[in-house]
Write the structure tokens for this entry.
Amino acid sequence: TALADFFNNLLIYADFNYNIVGGANVTVQGRFNDMRVHEVLDAALHPRGLKWTRQGNVITVEPDLHVRIFSLDDDSLQKTRNLLNDKKLQQTLWPPDGNPPVQGAELRLDERAGQLIATDSTNNLDRLDKFLKGLTDTAPLRYEVKIIRIRPEEGPKIKTLLEAHLGSDQDFDNATMMG
């Protein structure tokens, strides 16, 4: 149900007028049995990034937006850039098409500073934070291997140096040196 239709239906049960500010183009669904008007408004609006105020018999609905800045490492910056370019990140936050339902909500990537600046509801900002942390959690491990030829008589000396530098490890002790 469109937000305006939601309020028109609510007017049947309560005597007030409403004003939707800032193009709050959201849909509301749910069952609100045996709830007071303020409880219905909280349950319907807050999760969608909207807040409401009442002055007399007029309820005003407007976006409840906050700004959060996410610092990104180089790998996360690249992944985030690709997700933004493909509109995948927007679709994750604002399904199904990736268009924010609340005017003023946005994602901006500052590549020079390595930051994603997000303006949205607290709920969506928390979801975005969790999503971005998942980008770094799933980064593949990198191993670097170097094969160096050494003279057989230098093997024990180099092994001692490596043990001192890397620390003694059972797997290292069982490794074979190439001659």
